[in-house]
């Protein structure tokens, strides 16, 4: 892994560890699997590469590294003398387990999958959060539990070719499945997230009745659409390209990528928050984090401030979990924020506890379906 990371410094507040942008793009899951392999080989950069007074925050690399720098460096610098470091090494469950079990923890706070925080907590691999420091009442969207707390929100939305369907655009996942009214190829996300929910919504299940997910019913509905699915995209860039190049007429994509391709095509590709599936990312703290439990809790609390949340939305397109942040956004940003009032009320929230208990077997069945 060391040959995939370079070091840069901007100002005197943060050191950023970035993956090499020239390497092939990787999904969160792919990056996590490679991290497990690298950890097993002892290839993680040792904590000693960071100064003793630094707090190291792990995320999934790419643009998220720069976004975290822009949103968190300045407010953290005002609270602490040490620097904040963003390491884009991909805090997968396997990576956390390897670090904690080996006693060589290198991350202080991790931006990870919400369902992973449930499992890591159950395995005693992450610290119990201190709600005397962190204010769980500030989280209006997303999960809060003893070992994880939502830090921002993203959505899976319907993006479509407005040149073909602009007069009567799709407004639901039932429309997404309606190949007679909206003919043309589609694309879905390869790693299943939100696919089960959208399939059940397309099949007529009410949002409030989604969970526990009926896996077999969802897979049967996906199988029904399979002849019309051109591909199952792996990276956000791929989903953009499929739409931009006209290879598909609509796709299930992340809201951030939908907004980017809308700008790239001057509105030829558009999207809707109608029935968007909303999912939070999460902060969790590995057991034995080097900077100490107190520093990690203070960092998490800092990121809950409305101004910090609004800044992250500005630079990263991820919806604030603190509702007070929306009032600080410009009208233009409120239109594209997943948690802005008019968008969240049309959306469906993903229940990550179901994924924590069922993800492995569900993914195996889903993968077998789409690869068969």
From TrEMBL:
Keywords in alphabetical order: Periplasm, Signal, Transport
Transmembrane segments: none
Main location: periplasm
Gene Ontology cellular-component annotations: outer membrane-bounded periplasmic space
GO biological process, any: thiamine transport
CDD domains in the cross-refs: PBP2_polyamine_RpCGA009 (cd13589)
GO-annotated molecular function: thiamine binding; thiamine pyrophosphate binding
Localization terms from the record: Periplasm
Family, per entry: Belongs to the bacterial solute-binding protein 1 family.
Name of the molecule in the record: Putative spermidine/putrescine transport system substrate-binding protein
Taxonomic placement: Bacteria, Pseudomonadati, Pseudomonadota, Alphaproteobacteria, Hyphomicrobiales
